[in-house]
Design a protein that fits this description.
The protein contains seven helices and ten strands. It is an alpha+beta fold. The chain has a five-stranded mixed β-sheet. A three-stranded antiparallel β-sheet has the order 1-2-3, sandwiched between helices. Strands 4-6 form a two-stranded antiparallel sheet. A hairpin with a 3-residue loop joins strand 7 and strand 8. The longest helix is centred in the N-terminal third of the chain and has 39 residues.
């Protein structure tokens, strides 16, 4: 208790692989007035154990303290973090193992679909179409898990290109109308707007929003997709007429593995990774993601991308 804790003694306990990142984060707080919010490991001096911590803090200035002071909290998150790491490892391993047989199964289904074109058996055709749709859903789910694994290991890459967001939305419209599953899906007119982004990843975010809107709203209701652009950028929105989201759940929606556990959502498949991936994709595009919702009236999910000059 009598020993002075210096800044250097704190930094020395941070694991080597995170130390430079923590130092840069601390310097940004002091020089740029940013908020410090990081997760990293430390090796404790008293027992030598490695622990995961979440540190948050801010630089405060007062008249009495011209240089100010740094105030914050350090929370031990070892148990939660190790649970997530084990879950990520397991999901990544299982996803890799499932992908090969699933690809083969889809191929067999498609062969049977070709065979049924020459025979008059409507029941078999319908069953095969439904089986093919379920395999497609499972493939998307597995790809989502693999993306989480790549994201956590730093292997997910963003390949930006200049493209017209209205063209992408038009392509998504063609695919969505065919798979509306009893919903009325309306795409509002979209004007030409150029963005510098990863086209596939942005398409993934829009498709996730639409998929959730269909999944969490009653049959026969309307799902509306819009895109509004100005000099600042483009805001893409997907609205539904579903059950809505409780205010207490909204701050956690974009967290990994978070699911809204209500009696009317227990039968809906999902693992809480879709919106987490969307948020991470937006973070890597310097964009924003948010939601507005009203219980029993519906929800609107938005994301924004900065504007860029057209390439001509």
């Amino acid at each position: 208790d009598e020993e002075e804790m210096t800044y250097q003694s704190v930094i020395d306990q941070v694991s080597v692989e995170y130390r430079n990142e923590v130092i840069r984060g601390a310097e940004s707080v002091l020089k740029k007035d940013l908020v410090f919010d990081m997760e990293y490991t430390i090796k404790k001096r008293n027992d030598g154990l490695t622990r995961w911590v979440k540190s948050t803090g801010k630089h405060y200035k007062t008249e009495a303290e011209p240089y100010g002071h740094f105030s914050g909290t350090i929370l031990d998150i070892t148990e939660e973090k190790e649970d997530n790491i084990r879950k990520d490892d397991f999901i990544g391993m299982v996803s890799h193992e499932l992908k090969t047989p699933l690809t083969s199964l889809k191929g067999f289904i498609q062969l049977l679909q070709l065979r049924t074109k020459t025979i008059d058996d409507l029941l078999t055709k319908n069953i095969l179409d439904k089986a093919d749709k379920q395999i497609t859903k499972m493939t998307r789910m597995i790809n989502g898990f693999l993306n989480v694994s790549r994201l956590e290991s730093g292997k997910i890459h963003i390949e930006k290109e200049l493209f017209d967001i209205s063209v992408l939305i038009s392509e998504i419209e063609d695919d969505t109308i065919l798979n509306a599953d009893g919903h009325t899906v309306i795409f509002n007119p979209v004007e030409t707007a150029w963005v510098n982004a990863d086209k596939d990843k942005i398409g993934q975010v829009i498709n996730n929003f639409i998929s959730n809107a269909i999944k969490y709203s009653p049959m026969g209701t309307v799902v509306r997709i819009s895109c509004v652009s100005d000099q600042q950028g483009s805001v893409i929105s997907v609205s539904d007429e579903g059950m809505g989201i409780e205010p207490s759940d909204i701050p956690h929606l974009f967290e990994r593995y978070y699911r809204v556990e209500k009696h009317n959502t227990k039968s809906i498949a999902g693992f809480g990774i879709g919106l987490y991936l969307c948020a991470e994709i937006m973070k890597r595009h310097n964009g924003k993601i948010w939601v507005e919702s009203e219980i029993k009236k519906g929800s609107t999910f938005h994301f924004s991308l900065p504007a860029v000059q057209p390439p001509f």
